[in-house]
Amino acid sequence: MLLVLAAILWWALSRVAAQNLVPNPGFDELVDCPYAENQIYLAEPWTSVITDIPPWIPDLFHECGQSTGLGRVKVPNAGQWPYSYQKARSGGGYAGIFVFTTSIYPNSEYLEAPLLEPLKAGTDYYASFYVSVDAPFIFYHCFTKDVALAFSDTLVQQHLEIGEALEMEPAIAYSGPFIMDTLGWTRVSGCYTARGDERYVLIGNFKSLAETEVKYVEFTYPCSVFLYVEDVSVRAFDPLPDTMVLCAGETLELHASFRDASGIMWNTGQTDTVMVVDAPGVYSVSAIMEDCALHDTVVVLSAEGLPVWRDTAVCRGSGLRLVAPVPGESYEWSDGRRGRAIEVEESGVYEVRVETGCGDLVFGTEVEVRDCGCAVYVPNAISPNGDGVNDELRVEFGCDYAYRVLRFGVYDRWGNELYEQSGGEPLKWDGRYRGQALPSGVYVWMLEYEVEGPWGRRVVRKGGDVAVLR
């Protein structure tokens, strides 16, 4: 009989259908029905990067729209031209943006929305959206292949000049032939490994007018390319927990199915979406997505050989985060706190009891919180009169550990730098600025140094006042 850790299996299965992190991905949830062009803000929380040029704000099209003299916004007869026509790919709405123009405006419009949660550093994501060309029924002026999706850690609101584009590196970009399908939808997709804390998604053309690739079917000037945009998606490929525990005599199921994946490959050579493991080890899986691959890894530990926490030292004020080394159904710490992770600021012995399918497991460590800084002596007054007594501001160290000076500086009360020394010793200042004696007064010194001890390296910054007496 196949035995599985029930709680861990449920957790893994719940992540198979990864959540779409893009809100209102099909532009179907409306504050109100559109009745004119440039009303993308009615599909909250979508907005425009360019807000200071009203005609250059993305359009919103919907079945409930009212096509008037202010714009053709009622789906399916929506777009820039008298013969514009496009059915929604899903739901009842979609957006529209210019991605190339030889007119007096920036080269592209941009859609922008906040993600439901920030992207996690090192995690692979699959991003996609669909586009379709809005073109006149009779005259197909020009087409492009330059449309892409980018991420930002802040809301982007920017003014652009004629022919300019946002100077951002796209996360995914369309790489096929020129987009010329005016009836169907073309998918733009790709894989992206997050830097961490990306919070906004943007769609548009990130190339300037001069850089954009354009195909003229019948050369006309001016010329522009207007694309419908639908079904924006950003999903994490994270089907496996970081760690799993293999109970004695039992097996585990690893699940790695992912939407739209054309193939699954484990590092064991297996190609099924579900793999049964009966031995501890590191297991990784790749999901093939068109021209890219997504990756995830799990470490399977034996319940009979779980890692032992080492005692540790930490600098006072820097904090320490203790995380139970294995996942479980519940966590109970010796100080009464619950949850897999806790923050530690005081010395002591910390234990956590983890309830797992293999029974209760207990892990413990002794934490020592130390004062890591050096004893630094700096006089509070100097009298640089050349008598050989207290003529210089000298910095003296008393350290229990190896240290390295990074920077020492002296400033006046307005923050102007009077003296600077990058590294090296001795640290001393003679009360001069550019060779000229400074007047009596109070000055500020700042010191930055690095201490290396059993906790690793720590940068310490100190500062104070010194009076110059003449």
Distance between the termini: 90 Å
User: Residue-averaged pLDDT, rounded?
Assistant: 88
Secondary-structure class? mainly beta
Largest sheet: 5 strands, antiparallel
Shape: flat
Which spans of ≥5 residues are poorly predicted at pLDDT below 50? 1-16
The CATH top-level class label of the largest domain: Mainly Beta
Task: Give the number of domains.
Answer: 4
Fraction of helical residues: under 10%
Q: At CATH's second level, what is the architecture of the largest domain?
A: Sandwich
State the CATH topology of the largest domain.
Jelly Rolls
| Total DSSP E strands | 36
Count of helix runs:
1
Strand order of the largest sheet: 1-6-12-9-10
Radius of gyration over all CA atoms, rounded: 31 Å
Q: What portion of the residues fall into strands of 2 or more residues? A: 35-45%
Features:
single chain; mainly beta; Jelly Rolls; Immunoglobulin-like; 4 domains; five-stranded antiparallel beta sheet; 1 helix; 36 strands; flat; disordered N terminus
Describe the structure.
- This protein is 2% helix and 44% strand.
- The protein is an all-beta fold.
- It has 4 domains: 77 residues, Immunoglobulin-like; 198 residues, Sandwich (Jelly Rolls), CATH 2.60.120; 59 residues, Sandwich (Immunoglobulin-like); 94 residues, Immunoglobulin-like (Sandwich), CATH 2.60.40.
- The strands form 11 sheets. A 5-stranded antiparallel beta sheet has the order 1-6-12-9-10, with no helix packed on it. The chain has a 5-stranded antiparallel beta sheet with strand order 2-5-14-7-11, with no helix packed on it. A 5-stranded mixed beta sheet has the order 28-36-35-30-31, with no helix packed on it.
- The chain is flat and about 90 Å long.
- The termini are far apart.
